[in-house]
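Notes to self after the Tuesday call (sharing in case useful).
The group wants a holo model before anyone commits to mutagenesis around the pocket. I volunteered. Ligand is 5-O-phosphono-beta-D-ribofuranose. Logging inputs and output together so the record is complete.
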Amino acid sequence: MSQPVVGVVMGSNSDWPVMCKAVEMLEAFDIPHEYQVVSAHRTPDLLFEYAETAQDRGLKTIIAGAGGAAHLPGMLAAKTIVPVLGVPAVSKYLKGVDSLHSIVQMPKGIPVATFAIGEAGAANAALFAIAMLANNDPALAKKLQDFRETQRQAALNMKLPPEA
Ligand code: RP5
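Result:
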């Protein structure tokens, strides 16, 4: 795959079942990407290095997923001007509400675009990254339009009540 333009990071491999939905979406759209574990509290030096090198390495967006006291997206955003898209992971005890509040409540000045808790948030973060890239890529914009059309047709074909 060519030079990654989207980086997907997560605080733990336990976030993979959620964050793989972002990776799968990027793969479906043939977006050059990379993914790895970067933890704000377990590997803070790696976090700094990742954020500090992101722009020079060609990343246009970073999708960051974390759970609990989810400071990974905010800390990345503090260290790079590459846009950070935050995905709240589903946490064991508070079911991701803690993650959501941790990520969404960034103080003014250092933004993190925050998505829904869990798989929908991960997939939508990827779609949002794709939409930003599509601003300068007509072929990708067409793919995104086709994706929307597929969903439109699926909704139009829905039967009620749903079949078991
Ligand atoms: C966060 O702590 C991770 O993002 C994960 O959601 C949560 C729990 O991590 P593990 O204890 O499962 O490694 O850093």
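Two things stood out.
The pocket of 5-O-phosphono-beta-D-ribofuranose is lined by residues 10-12, 14-15, 39, 66-68, 89 (CB under 6 Å).
Strands lie at 6-10, 33-37, 61-66, 84-88, 113-114.
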